[in-house]
Amino acid sequence: xxxxxxxxxxxxxxxxxxxxxxxxxxxxxxxxxxxxxxxxxxxxxxxxxxxxxxxxxxxxxxxxxxxxxxxxxxxxxxxxxxxxxxxxxxxxxxxxxxxxxxxxxxxxxxxxxxxxxxxxxxxxxxxxxxxxxxxxxxxxxxxxxxxxxxxxxxxxxxxxxxxxxxxxxxxxxxxxxxxxxxxxxxxxxxxxxxxxxxxxxxxxxxxxxxxxxxxxxxxxxxxxxxxxxxxxxxxxxxxxxxxxxxxxxxxxxxxxxxxxxxxxxxxxxxxxxxxxxxxxxxxxxxxxxxxxxxxxxxxxxxxxxxxxxxxxxxxxxxxxxxxxxxxxxxxxxxxxxxxxxxxxxxxxxxxxxxxxxxxxxxxxxxxxxxxxxxxxxxxxxxxxxxxxxxxxxxxxxxxxxxxxxxxxxxxxxxxxxxxxxxxxxxxxxxxxxxxxxxxxxxxxxxxxxxxxxxxxxxxxxxx
Length: 463
Ligand SMILES: *Cc1c(COP(=O)(O)O)cnc(C)c1O
What we know:
Elements (H helix, E strand, L loop, with lengths): L1 E4 L7 E2 H7 L8 E3 L9 H5 L4 H13 L5 H13 L9 E3 L5 E4 L9 H19 L3 E6 L5 H8 L5 E8 L5 H8 L6 E6 L3 H13 L1 H7 L1 E2 L6 H19 L5 E6 L4 H11 L4 E8 L4 H8 L1 E3 L19 H8 L4 H14 L1 E3 L6 H6 E5 L2 H15 L5 H13 L7 E5 L7 H8 L20 E3 L3 H10 L3
Parallel strand pairs: 5-15, 6-7, 6-9, 7-8, 8-16, 10-11, 10-15, 11-14
Antiparallel strand pairs: 1-2, 1-3, 4-5, 12-13
Helix pairs in contact: 3-4, 3-10, 4-5, 5-6, 5-10, 6-7, 10-11, 16-17, 16-18
């Protein structure tokens, strides 16, 4: 499989190159040159196959030519053996007939684990094949750092440095990062805000001598391999619900658009999907776009679902490339205008692809709390605020009640205990394997908000 950039001018690469490159050299995002098709009997087999077996079958065309088959089978099996449910992504039917797909059974209780547990292994494999080492640096406001750390811990060839704003992440979030005892994992608590941390990371990437010296890299959400790994649970969900004999709809609490774009990819591979419902919180750039065909930036407001507090959705560019008939020059022009003017619009004839299948709803914090409370009252089930946004959007946008509607549950309720307790009066407990989180020793260093000191700290880890 070859990969092309959404902006049309970066070199065409194979999977291994795309994995390590992340962003394309022309500023675009990589997509497969063409969408492979699911085998005619893939869905009937996936109805009873293990998650890992289906995962290998669905992803193989994307990695073929870059990864050895036996190694791939082993990496996929290892990645999903870290999940605490035998189905990996189990389905649960609620009292109102909605189906919830639980994406949070991985090591850090959030859906990022599904992609990152595999991507960490693929990174180490590709680096070993090339005899290279990388330093992965990232900033986190608390939600995503632990998934990246768990993905890369103890992996040869990878040194991992995560910056978080000191005193500004919750105790659970900090401990999920800092209690990891691995020689290649380094947590820096920066005396500053999340924006300061992000700026520092940008500065590190802009510092060419440093970047080359340490072979700087990232595993951020625009990496194609993350999207690829997320295609799988759309396939397993449809297979288990209808065997592929009838379509299914999906409601997706959306931030950077990686999750729901994976659903689009599954549909392009032949998966029968009736509707994609995008759920937003008050930061509703995407649902405004789906209503108006105008993408317009606004400020970011903190909400109960912080993983969706975004100003722009970076993976949307991949869908734009498809809407524009894979015209990279048109995408490049649109994205430059977006950066310049903070807005762009898509002509009506290009929106045709979306009109049939896509809708969105904005669920504010009050509605989010009400949904958490309602699901607890009716089903005795605690759900997290992101999941509640997806369920609220599903209810608002569902067109045909005879089509199963799957709402993706993207985080375990114990990941956001304050919001869940405020809505239900019940504080969700951490699962058994994390029950001793507050007794484990922490490993991190406090650093001042000082670029050269932070750079020197990182370099000290590599000698
Ligand atoms: C990252 C995340 C999202 C948003 O997913 P995108 O792929 O960025 O759209 C939603 N919920 C949770 C809990 C997340 O961690």
